[in-house]
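User:
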Amino acid sequence: MSAQPLSSERIVIVGAGPCGLACADELKRLGHRAWTLLEAAPVPGGLASSVLDPAGFTWDLGGHVVFSHFGEFDRLLAELFDADELLHHDRSSYIRYRDRWVPYPFQQHLHHLPADDAEACVHDLLHACQRRRTHPPAADADFATWLHAMYGPGLVERFFGPYNAKVWRMPPERMASSWVADRVAPVDAGQVLAAFSGTARPANRWGPNATFAFPARGGTGAIWRRLAARLDGRLRTGARVVAVDPAARTVTLGDGERIGFDHLVATGPLDRLAAITAGAPDTVRSAAGRLRHTTVAMVGLGYRAPTTDERSWLYVPHPDVPFYRATNFSKYAPANVPGADTQAYSAWMTETSLLPGTRLHSPRLIRACDQALRRHGLVPDHAPLASTHLELIEYAYPIPTRDRDAALAEVVPWMEAHGIYPRGRFGTWRYEIGNMDHAVKMGLDIARRLVHGSAEELLTASCTAAAATGGRG
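Assistant: Predicted structure:
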């Protein structure tokens, strides 16, 4: 690698989450030295950061696990961690249905349901499979139509409907379906029937997170703290961008400082970016304003009770339970509890989806989450609480609405024409490429594009897939 800068063009990166950190790290590797990385928070990591509470429990901002679609992400982890610094797990995940736990994916384990429910689900599933042979769902079908076409009303009414209502806080009819590729498990009717007779062959566990890794210490945020540490102190924390002027090629920070750029990689929420960008046309701001997202309240509950549950995480569609997912966080890594003592402590991390702007009564939510964990048998009735911790993640997940791609087609080309490159989970607003490994890949790709003119592999593939659905997302 040449010691000389490949270009004198100034690159400003806004946001030190996985995407921004990977972009900065790649620019450094490429020998491009004219870059600045700005982060509003006091620590790096963004949505993938972790916190240590006063009682000594570590919490993530939501249920992250480390898995990968990309060799580049795997190589990055190998550079940052020795083999014994990552713990490896086989996923063990279940769905709460009435009075029982059904293995994940729900649609592949209908033989675990009560007889009446199983019969109704199988009947409707077989009918849906038969109908799809002649009437497959349209490529631009809404999510509700897609669910009924794939699984039939029995499964939708019992699981997919109530669960997605909790997660997205939006009717599936308003959502697109093209994001489901490796997010919603397929189903083989023959295997479902064989399971009832006990003749089904063991199936390969579905999904990219069937096995996953987790840092032995420090939570998911340990990954990004280590990556930030090798940027030679060039990350600026506490630096909030409050204005972007593409004509003057400057960003303005909260303290009034202006920083010049030739290219701006913006990894924060696209709707906020449009709102603070001078000269953005009303059409661009209006389109960005149509983008929708969820807010998530992460309630961490630490108990003075041993970690005995062997499962990884659990989905709960019940309307009387506030959270949609509970993660067995002390199972991920013993160091997530005080003294790494899982004989004395356990930790559960819950996620409750909210409409943005919802007024939250924190004590009430914490109490409801604690009671639900006990009521459904995840925590002993009399286990003392050792810690409670709440993190409100204002921008948690971008919602793949039916008009999302039309909105992005208004906003992103205008931004890029003015030297601004929205990337990462909320820069691209594409849930289907919203994992940590996706974010890292986007950061690497945009760095290579800006220095060498290389094509962005991941974003190009995602946009091509979206275009194939007729631009409906």
